[in-house]
Here is the input.
Amino acid sequence: METKRIVFVGVGGQGNLLASRLLGEACISAGIPAVVSEIHGMAQRGGIVESALIMGAKSPIVSKGEADILIGFEPSETLRALNKCNKDTVVITNIHPLPPFTVVIGQGVYPDIDKSLDIIRDNVSLLIAFDGDELAAKAGNPLSLNMVMLGALVGSRVIPLKEDILKETISKTTKQTFLESNLKAFDFGLAASRIG
Here is the structure.
């Protein structure tokens, strides 16, 4: 199969690492070789978190300019990770900002989201951008942004993974209390990113 290098970026507490792990488990269930790795992570809520999943290859490393797909849970982190992309990369990003502490206390400036999206759009093949936090809240669980973003990835049809495989993985690994809202969030992400 064709190798797909997927980078997930966000901040602590958004569920980025769980999303990459669930995608990896779904790949294995579908018979697709996959390697997942945490590239950089902060244990506390609010720190930068990056992980990667490589479909069809054995190395878990995604170097500068090698990402086929970038999934951004937070818009400024998507912009920060643009160096992982190339002109053929597909970027799927949440546009809901989660300003860092330095911005909150007035010691930093948050980048203009529209300008950031323009920069990203100018440097990649395709940009899919939407308010994932709004969709997670609509699903009944504000913490289900990770499910929204997984749905968006599958909905974009840029990976060879069917929605039923991922839904089955979510159903097996999600706490029963959150299952209904997680599946709704996945479906909202799926619809938000449908292309072609």
